[in-house]
Design brief:
heterodimer, A: about 110 residues, mainly beta, 6-stranded mixed β-sheet, 5-stranded antiparallel β-sheet, about 0% helix, B: about 110 residues, 7-stranded mixed β-sheet, 4-stranded antiparallel β-sheet, 11 strands, globular
């Protein structure tokens, strides 16, 4: 079983839809969780950064962490064509040496006008 | 503007040649990282450095080398020993080697074989 599983998509939604992106993981030591957005031919851009369980909201984006189920989600409300990108989840244990991140493979999202 | 600058954007390597990818940051970050990204795969860590003059191997260090002589610079050399170098290379940095601040990325260098 891979440490982090993420459905690669592609996921195609109409403009204005609510998008749900998800990752599951197997390492119960993970406590820091990140979502990055990556446009084509660009580097990943940090969207959300959360610690442990719970929700965090930033504008149209909400990150959820359910440590009991080892499941994290990113919700995008009122999706826009500019949200079309690949979304990467990443996570790590606390104060772990290199602070090395474990990444999902990314989900490619297309928002159709 | 503060940020992470990777150069060049595109690089071509001939067989048997070593090439060096540049990564510079003006964020005053202590830690720097190099990742490789291949289609359909997650980012894989090549090398990282938490402080000047010190660096550690990541998961896929074979065929690569790095140096960290200055805080703001962390160049990656792809040697001829790396038999499958075609990939998108990403550099990242993080503020403090002992903090919980997240990593931020540059815009990558795409390396191809001639």
């Amino acid at each position: 079983q891979k440490e982090v599983e993420q459905d690669p998509g592609p996921l195609s939604v109409p403009e204005g839809a609510i998008v749900s992106l998800n990752c599951t993981y197997s390492n119960s030591a993970f406590q820091y969780f990140m979502w990055y957005r990556q446009y084509s031919r660009k580097g990943p851009e940090l969207l959300m950064y959360t610690y442990s369980s719970g929700n965090k909201e930033d504008g149209r984006f909400t990150a959820q962490v359910d440590k009991s189920s080892k499941y994290i989600s990113l919700f995008i409300r009122d999706s826009q064509p500019s949200d079309s990108a690949t979304y990467l989840c990443a996570m790590r244990p606390p104060r772990a040496g290199s602070y090395q991140l474990t990444f999902g493979k990314g989900t490619k999202l297309s928002v159709i006008p | 503007d503060g940020g992470i600058t990777q150069s060049p954007k595109y690089l071509f390597r001939k067989e048997g040649q070593n090439v060096t990818l540049s990564c510079e940051q003006n964020l005053n970050h202590d830690a720097m990282y190099w990742y490789r990204q291949d289609p359909g795969q997650g980012l894989r860590l090549i090398y990282y450095s938490q402080i000047v003059n010190d660096f550690q191997k990541g998961d896929i260090a074979e065929g690569y080398s790095v140096s960290r002589e200055k805080k703001e610079s962390f160049p990656l050399t792809v040697t001829s020993a790396q038999k499958n170098p075609t990939a998108f290379y990403l550099c990242a940095s993080r503020m403090d080697r002992n903090s919980n601040q997240p990593q931020h990325f540059g815009d990558g260098t795409r390396l191809s074989i001639l």
